[in-house]
Design goal:
Layout (H helix, E strand, L loop, with lengths): L4 E9 L5 E4 L5 E4 L7 E9 L3 E4 L3 E4 L25 H17 L9 E5 L10 E8 L3 E6 L6 E3 L8 H16 L5 E7 L6 E6 L7 H11 L4 E6 L6 E5 L2 E8 L2 E8 L8 H14 L3 E7 L7 H4 L3 E8 L2 H13 L5 E5 L2 H11 L5 E4 L9 H4 L7 E6 L2 H13 L3 E8 L9 E7 L1
Parallel strand pairs: 3-5, 7-22, 12-13, 17-18, 17-20, 18-19, 20-21
Antiparallel strand pairs: 1-2, 1-4, 2-3, 4-5, 4-6, 8-9, 8-11, 9-10, 11-12, 13-14, 15-16, 21-23, 22-23
Helix pairs in contact: 1-9, 2-3
Length: 430
């Protein structure tokens, strides 16, 4: 056996999906596709200061929780991380990772009220996907290969909802016969009954491209299609409507919402409903609620059921406008959407001494480092922090807890089965 290869035991999983073990010298080794309880033979490919990264392992002792992946492309495709791990173990390890990330800051204790909420299904749940495209020279529609920017052609993905798979298949068939050189991505939103698609293309696109896109829109029965050409005089060509509608049943109240092209929307609608209901419950009896990073109203409008007034802050004027439209459609009069940057908004609220009982925030993956430094100055009695990144959540919770807030509840929602991604809700009180 090559002397550069080593044998290690895998003890845990990292946020990022890799197995974690240690070399004889004590240095941490991250191993892709390896599971806790396994012994593996690996070659170290990258050395870093406190850790190293290994290549694909030869498994010498197999975990009892290793299962056969549903997808034949799993070992190469970068879309999933844990199809080889039994689903109950995926949920357990996400809970472990979330707790570890928070406690290692040294400022925050995990509350007794911790709960992990699994998805009803580990497959067929994802209603949103962004496919990469290229002609090499044949048309490819798929996802990036693990750790690269090379595209793997995906003819069927078991994680996607049937409707998303159907649209992707139809797009592939049409574009293979009618090429659009320069096309580089296809984004599909299909939360429920309606679907929208956004195609992005580099400049100097063929003059027939718009006609081909219109054909996709009509033949695949899509509610709306946006065709964006980089650097073009017109930002996009739209066929049909600019949004698709979906609904949430929040404690027996049906709430109608919309999303538009390029918008963020939770990919798992069943877990999204559970998530929204939990946030509404935590905000129960609130007076004024400040909802930061409010988007088009996924939390803001349901929060109207629990609060006397909701002010939603969203940087995108398009999303804020869509939120106000949805508020009117739902006959909700106590929700207002403002198009503002979150940091500028909390700074202005602090300076003007405007009071809020509860602050809700759902920031992007980078968290809300600067915003959480100001939130305590607003004097809220409680904070509800929705996070998709346990590392930045841990950092921001530590900031809040240093000012006197206490983490009272923590709940993990497995929004993205078969991946390492973690959605969570932290509830804090002063």
């Amino acid at each position: 056996m090559d002397t550069d290869e080593i044998t290690i035991n895998i003890d845990s999983l990292s946020y990022g999906g890799r197995g974690v073990g240690r070399r004889q010298d004590g240095k941490v080794v991250f191993v892709p596709m390896a599971l806790p309880g396994e012994q593996v033979r690996v070659r170290v490919e990258k050395e870093r200061g406190s850790y190293c990264i290994a290549g694909a392992p030869a498994v010498l002792r197999t975990s009892p929780h290793r299962v056969e992946p549903e997808c034949g492309r799993f070992s190469h495709c970068g879309g999933c991380d844990w199809q080889h791990l039994a689903y109950t173990e995926q949920v357990r390890w996400k809970s472990v990772i979330l707790k570890d990330e928070i406690t290692k800051t040294g400022y925050v204790k995990i509350p007794e009220q911790f709960q992990a909420v699994p998805s009803e299904t580990g497959y067929g749940y994802r209603g949103h996907a962004t496919f990469q495209c290229s002609y090499e020279p044949d048309f490819l529609l798929g996802f990036f290969r693990k750790g690269t920017n090379r595209i793997i052609d995906i003819d069927s993905c078991p994680v996607l909802k049937p409707r998303v798979r159907e649209i992707a298949s139809g797009v592939r068939d049409i574009l293979r016969k009618n090429p659009i050189p320069g096309l580089y991505s296809i984004e599909i939103h299909s939360p429920q009954d309606e679907s929208i698609l956004q195609a992005r293309c580099r400049r100097n696109v063929h003059r027939n491209a718009s006609g081909i896109m219109e054909r996709i829109y009509r033949e695949l029965d899509i509610s709306g299609l946006s065709f964006v050409v980089s650097g073009a005089r017109r930002s996009d060509h739209v066929f049909g409507q600019r949004f698709c509608r979906y609904s949430l049943n929040v404690h027996g109240r049906k709430i109608h919402l919309s999303c538009s092209f390029g918008d963020f929307i939770q990919a798992n609608m069943q877990l999204n409903t559970a998530l929204v209901e939990h946030v509404v419950d935590l905000a129960g009896g609130a007076g004024k609620v400040l909802d930061l990073y409010g988007g088009s109203g996924n939390f803001s409008i349901p929060l109207s059921l629990a609060a006397s007034e909701v002010v939603s802050i969203e940087r995108s004027s398009k999303l804020a406008s869509l939120g106000n439209i949805s508020a009117k459609k739902n006959r909700v009069g106590n929700v207002k959407f403002l198009a503002m940057d979150a940091l500028k908004a909390v700074t202005s609220i602090r300076d003007e001494a405007v009071g809020f009982d509860t602050v809700v925030l759902d920031p992007p993956r980078e968290g809300a480092k600067d915003v959480v430094q100001i939130i305590p100055d607003l004097q809220p009695s409680r904070i509800i922090y929705i996070s998709c990144n346990p590392s930045t959540l841990a950092r921001d919770l530590a900031t809040l807890c240093r000012t006197g807030f206490v983490l009272k509840q923590l709940r993990m929602f497995d929004m993205f089965p078969q991946t390492f991604h973690i959605e969570s809700v932290a509830y804090l009180e002063r």
